[in-house]
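To whoever is on call:

I kicked off a structure prediction for a single chain this morning and the downstream step that reads the tokens threw a length-mismatch warning. I double-checked the sequence; it's 399 residues and nothing unusual in it as far as I can see. Pasting both halves so you can look.
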Amino acid sequence: MDPEVAKKLFIEGGTFVFLGVPEETQFGIDMQCWNTEEDFRGIKMIPPGLHYVHYSAVSKGTGDVSPRSGFMHVFHKKEFLVKIWDKKTEDMSKDEISDESVQRLKDNLFNLDKYLAPYPYEIWEKWKMLTSHITGELAIKLSPVSGVIRAAVDLLSMTDAERPRGLKVQESTKSQEGNIELTVEDEATPGSSDPKRAKRVTLEDKENLLLPDLKPAPGMALRFTTIPRDKYPAGSTPEEITKHYLDQSYSLELMISQHDEPLDIIGELQFAYLCFLIGHSLDAFEHWKNLVILFCSCDDAIQKHKSIFFHFVKSLETQIDEMPEEFLADIVMNKNLVYKKLREFFRTVYVSKVDGRLTTLIEGFKEHLTEKLQWDFTELDADEEDELPVIVNLNENHD
């Protein structure tokens, strides 16, 4: 590190003291992770801004690593944050540290300094790009109520009324072949004119309905903005419903309206990405993928929210560049969905004739994807056979 930079960070940087951490515990900050040594006491010279502190207990006998836990925190200049390891729970203690204890540690900083690892400054520029739209307020809003982001969340049983997607088992019978057949109701969204709507139950739905109903323990779930289940306003005509399924700008608008600032939706995309990249949360991975798909399914919103889509492309390119192979494998396996949605998005941008800045950014992004994932984005004006729309006559009379 440049001596002047090191001196500035030593004076202005934050300090995170983590007492009692067992040797060989996996500990990290942002994209860096280490196994602690016996004398480890924390991290110093932390650049002011948002950071992700994370850790995993390691069994001494077997070397087994527990699921990762961590938290996001905005470190201010010269901030001194202290946490203690709880040996019983093999986790960070929930107990608050007294002001007197914190002050004693600060007064003894000269002797404590040699046990503090310096922040890995070489990752700082990349980290700022990955978190460019995550404010401290947004991080608190999206984090679990407990404040701790966990890869493995404790689950509790849930009632029929809490069943995901509003599905409720009405009847369960066995067919002559011995297969279990379910009759399911799909409860309408409050305010809808129809009390109940017909639901086509897929094989996946049937399998899910046979599984125990579980929900995260109170305060432990990530609090992502819900992607609208109904992709169209109440009272829409069949033609309007079709339009909203082809162009999901309405759904994106609803999500944007739930944030304090429009660009907070990009912050949520970045937050979800970091929770699965660093926090190993599968729920965050699914939310990130669904957000990417939603962005790629919009038409009208591109013209209205040019700045949001510019930062969407910029963020997504940075994320894919940093994504490890194990996560890329899932993206590649979902090529039929993600790849086609990106083709759809790129084609929409060109047809909409948005400003040249976004078009130029997309040109570079396409080249990056082709090089990294070998995805072909040529001939965007040609629909693939399974992308062709299916026209259904809803007014057809049946005898």
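Update from on-call: the warning came from a stale cache, not from the record. Cleared it. Sanity check on the structure: Confidence is low (pLDDT under 50) at residues 169-199, 388-392.
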